[in-house]
Amino acid sequence: MPEDVEMNDSQAPAAAASASAAVGDAPAPAQSTLQHLKEIASVIEAGSLSKEVRRISRAVRLTIALRRRLAARDVAAFLAFALPPSSDAFARLSALVPKEDGGEMDVDTAAPTAQLSIKHGLPEIEIYCYLLVLIFLIDNKKYDEAKTCASASIARLKSLNRRTVDVLASRLYSYYSYVHELTNTLAEIRGTLLALHRMATLHHDELGQETLLNLLLRNYLHYNLYDQAEKLRSKAPRFEAHSNQQFCRYLFYLGKIRTIQLEYTDAKESLLQAARKAPSTARGFRIQCNKWAIIVRLLLGEIPERTVFMQKGMKAALTPYFELTNAVRVGDLELFRSVADKFSSTFSADRTRNLIVRLRHNVIRTGLRNISISYSRISLADIAKKLRLDSENPVADAESIVAKAIRDGAIDATLDHANGWMVSKETGDVYSTNEPQIAFNSRIAFCLNMHNEAVKALRFPPNSHKEKESAEKRRERLQHEEELAKHMAEEDDDDF
């Protein structure tokens, strides 16, 4: 989540090590995983005591970057360090961490001169321990233990109402839903998620509201409950987009709902905006957004540009949709059927198979438009043959298809029922119509919306208009900006 990052000398031993190296000292040995966890705990403690949410967010990002190095002995040693031995949380979490035989505890070879210590009893430290154990259990595919840990953490969160816990709570909500999705038990937690969303609303936990709303929408869409998802979305508090990642997810789910409800124009705007706002490292999410956006554009009668399918890292995943687009573009019904059958498993996995069934009418209409442009007069039997209609009475079907296309304005022609002909009218100049003006207006609206969103996303330091910036504050601000730039790529990749 894109929050500002703050770091000072007391919380960033890494910065101190780099400074000592700059003056000629020998490089310090690499820190152990346990030592990194202790430093993260000290950052959480500082954020809790100073009530700065930025430090809690930074601690979460550092944990995500460290998760691949986590071992059972490191987690167990950190629990012994961070939690009182007599506490219920220590007993509960220690029982969930598997014991490793034949291995010694990780040794802090690079401990700083001042030994790190934290205050016991801080709710933020306890919730962080729940989050750490839950991440470790999910990564090691111990889903039953992870569900137990997640349920215990949710029960503990219900008794807390602290702004410094909100960031940790939002991550716990996400992993709580994720572990139940992995075990195919999402329906069991729907009531719990609704209760948590109501609690977050009453506590004015804005980040929790956004996270839980997206989890509920994902829960409903997982079981194809689109009507219930739309009712929840319309009744929920207004989405203020405090987190870019959560806003991207919301736009994606909104686009899916609008697609099922046949509101293709709104769906296209939401899906394209979600793909544009998503970080470049979130490749899987952007692929899903592009898949749905391609289908929606085809349903609108548009043909996506070839560059959409050639984006870096997406070419293989979008190949089935590229062939589908080609079939729709040429209006070949037989080619459309073969592509749909060839990639049926892919479309089923992407949950777009039902939408592709809707495309059959667009393929027929595109083929009919090409025929009307190529022929000034053509018989209905030849139209049925060219469109490859395989019904019992193809001529009658061709006649009804042509009549509907003329009524909808898809083609400019007349139908001669007596002779069984379709007579096309002379193609006029498109620049004599309002089409160029409409297209130009839509592009202007898109650019203006992008500009307004960029202005809203601007951030300014608090009270910058009240006091002048001193030299010391300027140095601190520059240090914060450098740290923010360093962690921005990691931050974008964390939630996807």
Automatic annotation (TrEMBL):
Supply one GO CC term from the record. proteasome complex
UniProtKB keywords: Proteasome
Residues forming the PCI domain are: 248-429
Location of the region described as Disordered in the Swiss-Prot/TrEMBL record:
1-23, 461-496
Q: Where is the composition biased (Low complexity)?
A: 10-23
Under Gene3D superfamilies, the record lists:
1.25.40.570
Instruction: Write out the biased-composition intervals (Basic and acidic residues).
Output: 464-489
Key word Electron transport present: no
> Can you tell me which family this protein belongs to?
Belongs to the proteasome subunit S3 family.
Functionally, this protein is described as follows: Acts as a regulatory subunit of the 26 proteasome which is involved in the ATP-dependent degradation of ubiquitinated proteins.
The protein in question is named PCI domain-containing protein
Q: Which organism is it from?
A: Urochloa decumbens
What lineage is this protein's organism placed in? Eukaryota, Viridiplantae, Streptophyta, Embryophyta, Tracheophyta
